[in-house]
Request: fold
Amino acid sequence: MKTKPRKPRSAQVQCNRMRHRWPDLRPRMLEGGRVIAWIGPLRGFQMKYEVAVIWEWQNPKAVPLVHVLDPPIEARPGTDFIDLPHLNYDHQTPEDSALCLFDPDAGEWDSTMLIADRIVPWASEWLHFYEIWHLDGVWRGSNAPGPISVGEILRQRQEAPDGTRA
Amino acid sequence: MPLDDTAPQLDALLLGTVLEMELSPRDNQVASKRYNLIPEHLQRPNSPIRRYMETALVYPQGSRAIGATIVHGADDDRFDLDAILELRTPVGWTPRRVLDELHAAFEGFPDVKKIERCTRCIQLQFAFMHLDVTPMDPDRDPRAERVGEIYHSPDEGRDERFRVNPYGFGQDFRARITMPSRSFQDHVRDVRSKLQMKDRLVPGTIMADADIDALPEPIDPIRDAPQVIALKLMKRYLNLRYANRDEKRPVSVYLSKIAAEVPLSPFGICAQLESYAAELDKRMAAALETGRRPEERNPALWEENFNDRWPKHDREMKLFRMDLRHLVSELARARSSSLTDTRRIFDGLFGERVSEKAVRAYIDGLSSTAGVAHYEHNKGFVANPALIAAAPKKATQVSKAPAHHFHPGFRDK
Reply:
């Protein structure tokens, strides 16, 4: 039996689900309506962080990005921002990096899925593990195979002369 | 005060803190063995009270009877246990003589380091354990179950006798406790089984070690009820607060009675402790306002006033209120703090050693294997969903997010 290909979720469905599951994350339209941003509190270990979930809703390939606004995420003492685990790293302004919440090679996210049911809970989980990482420098969340930070990726590339991932 | 909000990760740390203060299974066995040795020792051939021991009865009272025993925390790794020794008063013996003779009769008790004669009991001091044995003269028949009189004989002042029923209180306490959901109980047992609990009573320091290791100790499930967990946390907190004060502290039996009267919170352990502290604070405020000291009675024997020795002065109630408010404000702070700051808050509330171990146990209990993650609607991640489902009527909605893997990458690449 042929399975019907699933359709990308519409902005209305995503907004309805967000309103139902995360009513404190308030939606607003940015960049002339091109982007929906849900902004509001999200729990880490216990503390609430203000986060922004940014989604280019008209672009079917766009991945929703989660940015931590307040308090801003920080490196551990003695390390660099680039060593923060699991960031979608922004070279120009590292502090604007988003959280990297899933393995793109493992099909864990696509546009048929609900932001409220995956991206937001995963972001909260990220914040929880981030606080534990701050305590002792060990990331205890689940990891995709390979390095856990962009800093580690770059160091491995430097070690491998052909620039391939070690 | 956020009494109506969950704090799942804080609950996990509070649970870890309580479990770190528990007696290990072996310590429990040793304690039981020592209870059992009391009649045996007092009936030995050269015991001065041997002939009065024929109808005597020994049973636990206090924390041991209600599943609320904890390691003290302020003094050392010590835990304090209590027993009642029911013994008909020999004809002509005054309270002073009963206590003096019993003091003498305990001489040579196995492993005991020191024996103290107190105003109402004999305290057997072992390494890491104190056992207070309170003699009681049972009422004559027809007798309400285990009602009797205990003796009071201070160095200065007259001897007295007080009618009490600690056994009845224990039964009443147990009847008032609401057992949490099965998933909550299973989770507590699971966390406990993974802990490396330290044996305080080191093998070789007690007689008949082999017997002890062979004895399976029945575990009292009441110890895992949130009302009892809140009581243990409060006791530990007060142990530390009063450690360097020359003030009388609120008596344990009073704290126990109120703990059982605070209903099971549907919002978890932290909310249970906050509700309990708020209830005690309310009672202190009312007492100070009306000028009438609390007179909490034993539900199993109305004439027994649990507040006969505390509080004696307004000052003591004001001090207690300050402590309660400090506890509540620190818990409120922890509710919105990072893990690093929460750890510091717990150091101050319950002691550095247990908070360090509780954090470590929490971290070690997390799985790094990708699996379904639980989250509370509109709040966020929940590491241990069973902890916020203690009450049958759940206060919060928890859903699951599919398994995934965190992954680093470059923006625009």
